Amino acid sequence: MAMTLVLMLSLLIPAAAIWAAEPVPQKAPELLEPAELPPVVDGHGTGFIPPRMDLSHLGGQMLPEKFMVQQSLPPSWDWRTSGKVTPVRDQGACGACYAFASIANIESKMLIDNAGTYNFSENNAKECNWEEINNYVPNVWGSCSGGNNYMMATLFSQKGTVLESCDPYVANDTACNSTCTYQKTLLDWCVISGDVVPNTNVLKTYIQSTAGPVYTTLCTAAIPNFGTYDGSYNIGYYGASAPNDHAVLIVGWDDNLPYTIPSPGSGCWIVKNSWGTGWGNQGYFTIAYGSAEIGKYSSYMHLWQDYDSNGGIMYYDDAGWNTEWGYNSTTAWGLCKFIPSTNTTVTNVEFWTTDATTDVDAYIYDDFNVTTTALSKLLWSSLDHSFSEAGYHSVQLSSPLTVTTGDDVIAVVKFTNSGYNRPIAADSRGPNVTQKTYMSPSGADGTWLDMGNNSQDDVAIRLRTSNYPAVSFSLDSYSDAEHNTACGNFTDYGTQHTAYMYGTNLVPNHSYRVAYYDGNDSKVATEDASSDGNGNLSSSHMFAEGTDASGTWHVTVCETAYSPGSTYSSSWPYILVEDSFQVADSAIPEFSTVMAGIGVAGLCFGIYYWMRRKAAWVSG
């Protein structure tokens, strides 16, 4: 018996050592799909369906550090008094409250940011989200069957909002109108709480100082006669009797508002509903703090941009964040390998975080070997970010990074959560890909796990892109002794001459690498030059008769992250644009194609030029 035990231990120890060296990825438990549709309350639709992730770790009980210098809260606050809330709308009997509350939050954010008054389309939001378009769990998710703020954040970050005038509201299931012009795109969305009622003062602080009016949810079944509420009283404190089923917008509070039923007390939220102005107090209700579990699943849009019709976004998380992975540690690494379909520039690395984070490091690499799972050629990095809330976040590149058609670009993010041990947000609903998204416990070469092959989930990291106006380049040249003088008129036939390159419409205040190749295709000079505030770039190279080879010279321009080869090649994918000019020992050039002439020992040579550009990517 003792010998058998020793043998078993000897077999187990190496296995344990291997397991310790290579942590096993673990997926967070997922909640069950809803068994029935959200209720209709006295003819009024509800529509909130909780996300499938267990978000109980997002309690909203403590103020983030960024609020530690916050002044004391006033006894009352109401964003309506400053005109930062748009009119009440009516969802009818359709279960689309999730779209109405999300749109109301964004419209208020526009007003708070002094970006103007907008009436965005709830119809587009309810019909064009991924779940509805792809009939995910038929007749349960999307349109009038219900949804949540996570679905809306996915839609608004991938595409954006559209105007009500283009896609008017219809209180039933209709087709997605994909022809409307997008207006605003979400860049940062913050989760205050999951399936937990947050601390009242924490929620107040968000509403007053950062978020403005906040998207939240409540349980309608807990409130007697809620469907016929007339606004003549403040709703008292009721415990929940069922899961939260309705999304609304908290616009303020009043600590002195009294309530008597079911027991006396004071202190109420001021809430905008989406059941029309004939319901409640002109569409609003006041309810005791925490009553009917109000406050669960609170969130808000933090950052946004005007929709970029010349931009795009690369991602594999079609349905956004709906599951989570990790290594039973607060730290894990995610990777997405993208292959651009056209030339463009990366402006932002974007991702979901499953918790408040203490450290987020973002990287972009040029190469990833899927066989050895090794990264190489770091192009950009931005370290030591932290986010006070879970949600959707964006890290902007200090200077846009050019990527080219068919040349893969790899986004890598290290996540360190404050407490939750599943740091990798992923998509388990959309179609999965293989050899494209990976996770790792350390980010080290050889440790990356292909999520598509091993779990059928996709890591939720993205690259936002934008195309700038077409770059224009030209070449000019002159003798150092006789600047800008036509060929044949030089009075000093010195041997030193300079070629000048000019570019316009580049990224402003951005560094580029310019390489010069002589007639033998050998690199003779490399210069790093920066564009000015208007996107203009200039570079020059001095060459000499009898020293530098005649023939076709090439000038290439690329990002400073790349090192041009010692021998010219037109097939390099990282070249943004190139020109060439002809250096000859005789013959007067045709001036219809000559930028300038240079005299060399009584002879002439011209500078001819042409441009090689690649197509621009225009994508929503």
Describe, in plain words, how this protein is organized in 3D.
The chain is mainly beta. It has helices at 2-21, 97-112, 122-127, 130-133, 149-158, 200-210, 451-454, and strands at residues 26-27, 40-41, 44-45, 76-78, 184-191, 214-218, 246-259, 265-272, 284-288, 296-306, 311-314, 323-326, 331-338, 344-353, 357-369, 374-385, 390-403, 409-417, 424-427, 437-440, 449-450, 458-459, 461-466, 472-479, 496-504, 511-517, 523-530, 537-544, 551-559, 577-583, 597-600, 603-606. The strands form 7 sheets. Strands 4, 5, 6, 7, 8, 9, 10, 11, 14, 17 and 23 form an 11-stranded antiparallel sheet that branches. The longest helix is centred in the N-terminal third of the chain and has 20 residues, at 2-21. The protein is elongated, with a radius of gyration of 30 Å.
Annotation keywords:
elongated; mainly beta; 620 residues; disordered C terminus; 11-stranded antiparallel β-sheet; 32 strands; disordered N terminus
How is the topology of this model organized?
Layout: H1 2-21, E1 26-27, E2 40-41, E3 44-45, E4 76-78, H2 97-112, H3 122-127, H4 130-133, H5 149-158, E5 184-191, H6 200-210, E6 214-218, E7 246-259, E8 265-272, E9 284-288, E10 296-306, E11 311-314, E12 323-326, E13 331-338, E14 344-353, E15 357-369, E16 374-385, E17 390-403, E18 409-417, E19 424-427, E20 437-440, E21 449-450, H7 451-454, E22 458-459, E23 461-466, E24 472-479, E25 496-504, E26 511-517, E27 523-530, E28 537-544, E29 551-559, E30 577-583, E31 597-600, E32 603-606
